[in-house]
Design a protein that fits this description.
alpha+beta; BirA Bifunctional Protein, domain 2; 2 domains; 3-stranded antiparallel sheet; 38% helix; binds 3,4-dihydroxyphenylalanine
Length: 341
């Protein structure tokens, strides 16, 4: 009988592999474990085993019984938990579900892209201070306290009691120019990207918090023509070849002459619409030739050096590039918007 049990064990081990669903598991149970099954008949047969071999055979029979039960229970559990490949309702060939991966915010992406465009023509990236002092944000940029243009930028002041300087949240990235020139001898070719703050009324076109990228190039014989060429190079690289640009005379205390750069309105292609206020153009940057007074403040000789500077609104360039009509949407963190970039 022991030999028979061993053979059965081999048979069962092979047989259980072909059980792929609950129906064939039930057939397995009936065949081996039911009242009319093999196990039961083995116990019947055991009754007639002679006395000497009863102990040994009984032990083997019990082992076989446990083996059968275990193999059956295990299979049942596997089938119920859906582990059977053939009969399970799960399609294992489907691609897995992935979690929502975070991505870089489109402002961060834009800064990287713009940095790259200027790095390709020899500019270095410098990060200025978000908390600036009045001297770097205004005075050194040819904007002393009495200067009416200070009113152009409503300022958030930072409580600096007991300090010898007045601190503020920088209203533009232009103080970065001063910090670079204070610490470097010409030639200088830098861009300064970063956050700026102004106490402005919030609307679809302005926020109290936004980003700019400043550019500065100082060397002997830098011309206005170089400024125009650089900004046009940027516009072509960033917006694609198709958008027209123009420079318009303007005023900034730290440049002379000063200009503003406009690009063709993305919506109406210069025909005039309410986004461009029927001008056909959208302003993206202020620029000009560095004012000799600024050079004097940082110890550069304006008789020897000349330079150009520009400051671009990053949100503004993105609005132009992607046709985004409202600046507030950048900071609402609506995934439906952010996911598109
Ligand atoms: N800082 C100016 C602003 O925030 C923009 C600007 C204009 C920057 C002319 C410049 C410049 O470097 O040359 O409105």
């Amino acid at each position: 009988m022991i030999e028979k049990l061993n053979n059965l064990k081999t048979e069962v081990s092979a047989g259980i592999d072909s059980v792929k669903d609950l129906k064939s598991l039930e057939e397995f149970r009936i065949k081996y474990l039911s009242r009319n099954g093999i196990l039961h008949s083995l116990f019947e047969e055991f009754k007639s085993v002679d006395k000497e071999s009863k102990g040994k055979t009984g032990k083997a029979l019990n082992e076989f019984k446990n083996f059968l039960q275990e193999i059956f229970d295990k299979k049942k559990e596997d089938l119920n938990s859906g582990m059977s490949v053939n009969e399970s309702k799960t399609d294992y060939s489907l691609p897995g579900r992935t979690g929502n991966k975070g991505t870089k915010h489109l402002i961060a992406q834009a800064i990287e892209e713009i940095n790259g465009i200027f790095e390709n023509i020899g500019f270095k990236v410098y990060y200025g201070n978000e908390i600036e002092d009045e001297y770097h944000n205004f005075d050194a940029l040819n904007t002393p306290a009495y200067h009416p243009s200070r009113d152009m930028q409503d300022t958030f002041y930072v409580d600096g009691k007991g300090k010898d300087r007045v601190y503020l949240l920088r209203t533009h990235t232009s103080p970065g120019q001063i910090r670079v020139m204070e610490n470097t001898k010409p030639p200088v070719r830098v861009i300064v990207p970063g956050k700026c703050y102004r106490n402005e009324a919030i609307s679809s076109r302005s926020l109290a918090f936004f980003h700019q990228i400043e550019g500065l190039y100082v060397d002997k014989k830098v011309t206005f023509r170089a400024l125009k060429g650089t900004l046009n190079y940027f516009a072509k690289e960033y917006f694609g070849k198709s958008l027209k640009t123009r420079l318009r005379p303007s005023y900034f205390p730290f440049t002379e002459p000063s200009a503003e750069m406009d690009v063709e309105c993305y919506l109406c292609k210069s025909k005039g619409c309410n986004v461009c206020k029927y001008t056909g153009w959208l302003e993206i940057a202020g620029c000009g030739m560095v004012d000799p007074n600024v050079f004097k403040m940082v110890g550069y000789d304006p008789e020897v050096y000349s330079g150009f500077a520009f400051g671009m609104g990053i949100e503004r360039t993105l609005m132009v590039k992607h046709g985004i009509p409202d600046i507030r949407i950048f900071y609402e963190n609506d995934i439906r918007f952010l996911k598109q970039f």
